Model the fold of this input.
Amino acid sequence: MIRTFKVLSLLLSYPTDELQRAAPDLRAALVAEGLLSERRHPGLYRLVDRLGADDLYELQERYVLLFDRTRSLSLHLFEHVHGESRDRGQAMVDLQTMYAEAGLFVAARELPDYLPLFLEFLATRPMEGARELLGQPLHVLTALRERLERRQSDYAPVFAALEALAETTASPEHLAAARAEPDDDPSDLAALDRAWAETAVTFGPDSDPSGACPKAEWMLQQMTAPPAPPAGR
Done:
């Protein structure tokens, strides 16, 4: 189990009170595994601390503005690769099949290309395999990091950390295509309405009437649960 991927998945999940309380545990998990040191990734640790200390409603508002209302920052990977084309549907099926073969079953209301879910899957893989899979959408992750850096967002270091974990760089051709995607302005409500007119599925705080994120809450339980005793004891 690669806990660092679980931590990054949680950092990209909708902020909740439970996530906020778990911030010290997330920091401790990063330090213990040692894949992303605070010296080399200070912004990542600042984000963990801010998620634990800032006003929850402000954190939620910031998250929604970035990832739910800004299509060019969508956390659904295939949105940036296939858009609304038919290829996206088949890619979803292929990804969900890969999850199922590894024993990870996706709830009906979840989309398999949701980045926090993808990172949860990577956490179950051997590191070499996880790095290989992470490298496939690396051009999208790099483009997202650049857009977040232009906004001076606290979330940009999460994507920089993913680039570091991949230990490779995106192909220039694929990265150029990802960078060419229009970077929309969430304050332009009319443009947003037009951009999302064809979107039939939502994911995030509005997909659950309670405003909670069950996947993130389950993952937090896994992060803080005590290790299972050795077999035979």
Q: What stands out?
A: The chain has 14 helices and no strands. The CA atoms of residues 208 and 214 lie 9 Å apart.
